[in-house]
Every structure is written in structure tokens, then in C-alpha cells.
Design a protein that fits this description.
Helices cover about 75% and strands about 0% of the residues. The chain is mostly helical. The two termini are about 25 Å apart.
């Protein structure tokens, strides 16, 4: 089971991916890509990865709680496969982190090669090479988002099978219950993760036109695209040091590190599960209740 000590995990991953020796660092000026990365990209990236891990950890705990309450329902799940998917998701987090560090290393190494031709005499680098590396930054973050979301769907497949009949019951009770069992009343009275996930699933079902996207990686992509545009416009007008100095002043005005809250985690899990459930028609409530009653035995 994933543990909630995710900040320590991310720190260890960052600490294990150092790529520069003292000689390389001494070649860099104060205003360089690594300063931009550390100041504006690392905090947001770390926050995003921690958010994913914490959300999945809470989901895993909620699913286990549900299986404990409805032992028969747990028979529909595949615990071995589910455990593998959770392990795969955690591994994907590490892959995305290494891609983040590796790409910024490429940008920095390309700059060092431009400033010191002796570093790569057989394949000298130019500003065009640096532009290409910067342009590819947003592509890397988009790819990370896609692969993480795909791994997330795999990790939630087993749990969505267990959640599906409960969703049907809660949805119909809310529709039929009036004010005493209405959405606003339940939102005020339910404070556990399992209940909030179910309510969020119902909300998505009742309002499918709303955008339930949590917006992960959006700020990183926005900053990356702004950086690429700025380099296209000014990369050849300024010296490399002047460009990164101007970037340091501009980047703070573009986006911000997203302050994720508990509801964001619930919404991420619920919106992902909803895609997996594929409920086109609401089953008969009596049949579902009979199945749940049998599941307690």
C-alpha cells in the first residue's frame, strides 16, 4: 500500500538525480537554466507528484475499507493485479521525475557547450540547439501528464468495479430523497474519504457538462510555453546570461504553484473512476440493493 510520506519520497528522488559536478557548476553564471528550474519549476513539479501519490494512497485506503465492509463485493476484485497497478503507478512517478531532471540537464548542458566550444569540439552546439531543447520542455510535461493519468486509470480499475454498485444506490437515493437526502445536506454531513468520493461521483453523473479537470501540470506547461516563446523572441537579441536574468524577472508573473486541497484529490479520483465505469443506464435500484445486501454476507 502506498504510504502518505510522499514529501520524503520526492526529496529522495530529487536527491538521487544530481547531474552536475563542481566543475560544471562553476562554469554556469548566476542566471542560468538550473536557477529557473529550482525557483519556478521544481516546487510546482514536486507539489504535483506529491498530490498524485497522496490521492492514490487515500483511494487505496478507502477501497480497502469498502472491501472490509462488503466482503462479498471484494470477490469481484483482483487484489494481485490491483497491487501491481499501484506499484506501476509509483514507478511511473519516478520515471516522470527523471524525465524532468534529465530535460533540464539537457538545456543546461547545451548552454555550457555553447559557452565553451572545447566541451564538444566534434559536435558544437548553437543557439538553435538550445531553442530546440527549450521548445521540447512543454512536450515533456504533456507526456508526463498523459502517462501518469494512464497509470492512474490502471490503478483505479479494480476499485471502480467495487464502487460502481454503491454509486448507483447513492445517486438514486439523492434523486428520490428530496431535501433531507439532497446533495447539499450530504455534503455538510459526510466527512470521510469513501463518502466524499461517492458524492463526487454522483455530482459528475448529475452534471456531466462541467469541467471536472483538476488542472495538473497546467502551470508547468504554461511556464514552459512562455519560456519557449520568450526565447524565440529574445534568445538571439540578448546574451545567454541576459536572457536568463530577464526570464527570472518575468517567470514569477506567469502562473503559480497550485495549492492543492483535499477536495482536489477526491475530484481527481472520482473523475477518473467515472470514465472507467461507463454507466450508460441506471440499473434498477431494488436489484442493486439486493446485491449489496448479499455482499455483506
Amino acid at each position: 500500500m502506498l504510504k502518505p510520506k510522499t514529501n520524503l519520497l520526492i526529496f529522495c528522488l530529487f536527491a538521487g538525480t544530481a547531474v552536475f559536478g563542481e566543475e560544471d557548476v562553476s562554469e554556469c553564471t548566476r542566471y542560468d537554466p538550473q536557477e529557473i528550474k529550482a525557483t519556478f519549476f521544481d516546487p510546482s513539479f514536486s507539489s504535483t507528484l506529491n498530490f498524485y501519490l497522496e490521492a492514490v494512497s487515500e483511494f487505496e485506503n478507502a477501497i480497502q475499507d469498502l472491501k472490509d465492509k462488503f466482503p462479498k463485493m471484494a470477490e469481484k476484485s483482483n487484489p494481485i493485479q490491483a497491487a501491481q497497478f499501484f506499484a506501476n503507478f509509483k514507478e511511473e512517478i519516478g520515471i516522470c521525475l527523471r524525465a524532468h531532471v534529465r530535460h533540464w540537464s539537457k538545456i543546461t548542458e547545451t548552454q555550457l557547450d555553447i559557452l565553451d566550444k572545447s566541451r564538444s569540439p566534434s559536435a558544437p552546439k548553437t543557439l538553435s540547439d538550445l531553442k530546440e531543447a527549450i521548445d521540447d520542455l512543454s512536450k515533456m510535461y504533456r507526456q508526463s501528464a498523459e502517462t501518469l493519468n494512464s497509470a492512474l486509470e490502471d490503478a483505479l480499475k479494480d476499485g471502480s468495479v467495487v464502487f460502481k454498485p454503491l454509486l448507483v444506490v447513492v445517486e438514486q437515493l439523492i434523486k428520490a430523497g428530496g431535501e433531507k437526502v439532497g446533495m447539499s445536506y450530504l455534503e455538510k454531513t459526510i466527512d470521510n474519504t469513501l463518502g466524499m468520493m461517492l458524492l463526487s461521483l454522483v455530482q459528475i453523473r448529475l452534471d456531466s457538462t462541467k469541467d471536472w479537470n483538476v488542472g495538473l501540470f497546467e502551470d508547468l506547461i504554461l511556464k514552459s510555453e512562455a519560456l519557449a516563446k520568450d526565447f524565440t523572441q529574445n534568445g538571439r537579441k540578448l546574451t545567454i546570461q541576459e536572457f536568463w536574468k530577464s526570464t527570472l524577472n518575468k517567470m514569477g508573473k506567469i502562473g503559480e504553484v497550485k495549492d492543492f486541497v483535499s477536495k482536489d484529490k477526491i475530484r481527481l479520483i472520482a473523475s477518473t473512476m467515472h470514465k472507467l465505469m461507463d454507466i450508460e443506464e441506471t440499473p434498477d435500484l431494488v436489484d442493486v440493493l439486493r446485491g449489496l445486501a448479499a455482499g455483506r454476507n
